[in-house]
Amino acid sequence: SYDRGSTFNVFVGRGQLIAGMDKALVGMCVNERRFVKIPPKLAYGSEGVSGVIPPNAVLHFDVLLIDLWNSEDEVQVQTYFKPEKCPRTVQVSDFVRYHYNGTFLDGTLFDSSHNRMRTYDTYVGIGWLIPGMDQGLLGMCVGEKRIITIPPFLAYGEEGDGKEIPGQASLVFDVVLLDLHNPKDGIAIENQHVPESCERRSQTGDFLRYHYNGTLLDGTLFDSSYSRNRTYDTYVGKGYVIAGMDEGLLGVCTGEKRRIIIPPHLGYGEEGRGKIPGSAVLVFDIHVVDFHNPSDSVSITVNYKPSNCTVLSKKGDYLKYHYNASLLDGTLLDSTHSLGKTYNIVLGSGQVVVGMDMGLQDMCVGERRTVVIPPHLGYGEDGVEGEVPGSAVLVFDIELLELVSGLPEGYMFVWNGEVSPNLFEEIDQNHDGEVLLEEFSEYIQAQVDSGKGKLAPGFDFEKIVKNMFTNQDRDGNGKVTAEEFKLKDQEAKEEHDEL
C-alpha cells in the first residue's frame, strides 16, 4: 500500500478480506502495528493468486492501522475547557469565528487555521460546513475548547476533498471558539454601575466624553482610551461613531459604567478595521465622564441665600468670591481655598469665561451656589492644556464674599454730587489753558480721595485715568484744551442733537 501511496480501506468481518486478515484486524487500535502470519487455509489456499501468490503460501503482513470507524458512529465531542460564565451557546444559524487544528485519527495534521493566522468564519447548521462540524459546534460557548471527531460519512466521504483529505478518512478537529453572534442580534447592554443620583440621561444630539476599553468576545484588547490618557469625545445618535455605539451611549448618566456588546453588522462588519478582524463582535466597557448638549445654558443651583438679600450683583460690580472648580465626575481642578485668597473680578468685563459671568449674576453677599457651565460657555473644545480637558463641563461651587457696586455701563468715573461749572479751570491748575496727563491724574485722585468722585472698581487707577485723558485729548497731542474738554453727558447730547 505504501508503493501505491494510498491506504487499504475495507469493512472488517464482512467477507471483503481473506479470513485470516478479517480475524487479525479485530481488536486493533489506531496507530497500532501488528505483524500478521496467515496460513494458506485462511489465505489463498492451494490455488494462490496467479503470478502473485503461489499455492499453499504462508502470508506475512506488516499492518499499521491508520483509521477506524463504523457506519453506526456519530460525531464525538470532548470538551476539555469551558469558561465559568457561558451566557450563550452556538445555535443553528449563528455566525461563529473559531480556530482549529485538523488531524486524522493517527494524529497527522492536514490543516490549521493557526498556521494561517486567521480564524475560520462561517454560519453553523445551514450547510456551509461538513455535516459533522455543523453538529460538533452546536452548544459551544465563547472560549470553550473541544475535540470534535467526525466519521467520514459526515465529513468528505469516499472521495475525500481531492487534496489533503483522502477518501474514507475520519477527521479530528481541535477547536477553540472565539466569537459568536446571530445576524438578528441587536446590541446588548450590561449595567455595571449606575449612580444613585441621575438627574439627566443622554439623548440624541448630546456630546459625550467617556473612557472605554474595547475587546473582542474572547477578551483580546484592541483599543483603550485609558492608554491614551484621554477621553473619547463625540456626539451621540448622529452617526459620528459606529451604529452599535451610537445606540449604546443613549440613556446613560454621568458617572455610569456599562458594557456594550455590539454584533459586527452594527460594528465594523465583515471587513473589520485595524486590530479588529472581520465579522467580530465588539465589547466596550465604558465610563461616562460627562455630557452636555450644544443648546445647554448655564445651570445655577442656589445652596444658601442670606435672609437679607437686597443688593444683587450686576454687570460692572467688583466681586470677591471663593470657589471650588471640578469636572462633572468630581475631579477637582482648582480651588481658591487652597490658595488662601479670593478670586476678584469685575462682572461682565470678560475677566472670566462667559458661563462664569452668567453664573455670578444676581448674587448677594454671603450667597452660595453651584454653577454648571457647558464647554461652549467655558473653555471650549481645546480646554486649557494640563488643567482643563477639551469639551469639559465645569462645576463651580461659589461663595460671594464682597460686592462693590460698579458704575453705569460705559462709565469709568462718575461724580457723587454736582459737577463744578468751572471744571476745566479747576483741573488746569497753572491756568495755561492746557491740561497735561499729570494734572488730570492728580485732580481725579483728589476727587476720589475726597469722596466727590468714584472710579469703576476693580480696574487699575492709572489705566482708567489714562483712558479718560486719551478720550479728551481729541487731537492726540498729549494736551487737553478747553475746546476739547467735554463731559460724557455733553458728548451724548451733542451726538443726539446732530442726529
UniProtKB/TrEMBL annotation:
Coiled coil: none annotated. Its main location: endoplasmic reticulum. It is an enzyme of class 5 (isomerase). It holds the Pfam family EF-hand_5. Keywords: Calcium, Endoplasmic reticulum, Glycoprotein, Isomerase, Metal-binding, Repeat, Rotamase, Signal. GO terms for molecular function: calcium ion binding; peptidyl-prolyl cis-trans isomerase activity. GO terms for cellular component: endoplasmic reticulum. Its EC number is 5.2.1.8. The keyword Signal applies. Residues 415-450, 460-495 form the EF-hand domain. Residues 472-499 are annotated as: Disordered. It catalyses: [protein]-peptidylproline (omega=180) = [protein]-peptidylproline (omega=0). Residues 1-69, 93-181, 205-292, 316-404 form the PPIase FKBP-type domain. The keyword Ubl conjugation does not apply. It is found in: Endoplasmic reticulum. PPIases accelerate the folding of proteins during protein synthesis. This is peptidylprolyl isomerase. It comes from Cathartes aura.
